Amino acid sequence: MLKADPLTGYSLFIMVILALVGSFGWPFLAGLAGCFAWFAASRMFSSLQPLQRIQVLVMLGLGTLGLVFGQFKHTGSFWWLKALEGNQGLVSMLLSVSFLRLIAITDLAAKEKLPLGRAALWKTLLGVHAFGAVINFSAMIIMADRLAIKKGLTPLQALVITRGFTLAAHWSPFFASMGVVLMSAPGASLWKLMPVGLVLAALGLVIAGSLLLANPEAKNTDAYPMHWQALTLPFVLAVSVLAIHTLDESIPVLTLVSLLSILFTLVLLLVRYRYKAAQYLRQHIEITLPSMSGETLLFLSAGVLAAGLGSALQAAEFSLQLDYFGPWQAWLLLLVLVAISGLGVHPVITIATAGGLFSPWVEDPNLLALVFLMAWALGVSLSPLSGTHLAMQGRYGLSSYAFTRWNLGYVGVLLLVQLIALHFYVFLN
C-alpha cells in the first residue's frame, strides 16, 4: 500500500506547472522549477531500490566532478544552471503523463472471461503497444495484473506484454525515450523520427509476435480481453499532439505532451466524476507522484551528468573529429549502446553521454536520434535491470535476468533489421 506524502507530491506538481509556464516564454522559471524538483528528490531518495541509489549517486558524482572541472577552467555558470534544471522538461512529461491513468483505466475487462489462443495473444501484443504508447508503464501493469489474477503470469504472457510495450519506445512522443532523444540530439525532428519509428515498431511487432506465438503453449495461453474502444483516448491524444505541433513547431514536444496530458485528464475527470474529480486528483498528487521516485531521480541525475559532461568537454576543448557518420558508424554505435544496456546500465545514461560526445559532430541529428531510439527500445528489452523487467520480477516473481536470456535472440534479429533500416534512411535522405 502506497503512503501519502503531500509535501513531496505538491512540490513535484508545482515543478510541473512552473516548467510548463516557463516553456512559453518565461525561462527564468526553470531555475525555480529545478529547486522544487530537487527538494522533492531529496525526500524521495530513501525510497529508491539499492541499485537505483548506486546509479543515481554515480551520475550525480560524475556530473559534479565535470562541473567542478569546468568551473576551474572558467566555463561559467551556464552548466551549473543546466544541472539545477536537471531534465525538468522530461521529468515534467513523465509526471504529467502519469495523470492519464486516472482516466484511461476502464472496467470493461475487469470481470470478463480471459480469451484463449494465438489470435487473442496477437490482440494483446498490439493492444499493449498502442495503449502503452500513451499511458506508458501503467498499461503494462494493468494488463499483467489482470492475467496474473488466477494462475500467475507465465513467461510467454510476460514476453508478449513487455515486448509489445518496449517497442513503442521507437516512436511514441509520450515515451521518455523520445524526450531524452530530442534533448540529446538537438535539431532532430519529431516529424522525421515518428514515421521511421512507427515502421520499426511495426516490424518489431511482427517479429515479436511470430517468434512468441510459434510456441506450442500459445494456443492454450490466456490473453487480455482487449477492447479497442479503450484506445480512443491514446489515439485522440497522439493526433492532438501532432496537429498542434504542425501548427506551431516552436512549442516544444515535451511541453505539448505534458500540457495536453493534464488538460485531457482534468476535463475527463470533471465529465466522468464531477464532485469526486478533486478527490482523485488529490490522491494522485499526494500518493502516485511521490511513488515515482525511481524515474524522477534517474532523469534528474542524468541531467546533472549531461551538464557535467558538457562542462568538462568544453573546458577540455574536446573534439571527436568525426570525418563521417553514416549507417555503419551509426549501427556500431547502436551495438555499443545496446551492449552496455545489457550489462545493466540504463539507456538514459548511455544516451545522455553519447549525445554529449556525438551531437556536436554529426551532420544529421535525425540519424543520431534514430540510433538513440533504437538503443532505448532494445536496451530496455535486454537489460536485466530495466524498470520493465524489475517490475516483472517484483510483482510476478519472474527473474529479471531470465528476460535477458529470453530476449537475446529477439534483440539480435532486431539489430539486423535496424542495420537495414539505417541504410534505407541514409539512402532516402
UniProtKB/TrEMBL annotation:
Transmembrane listed as a keyword: yes
Transmembrane segments: 12-39, 51-69, 90-110, 122-144, 165-187, 193-214, 226-247, 253-275, 296-316, 328-355, 367-387, 407-428
Keywords, sorted A to Z: Membrane, Transmembrane, Transmembrane helix
Domain of life according to the entry: Bacteria
Coiled-coil regions listed in the entry: none
Record flagged with keyword Translocase: no
Range of residues in the leader sequence: none
Name of the protein in its database record: Uncharacterized protein
Organism of origin: Marinospirillum insulare
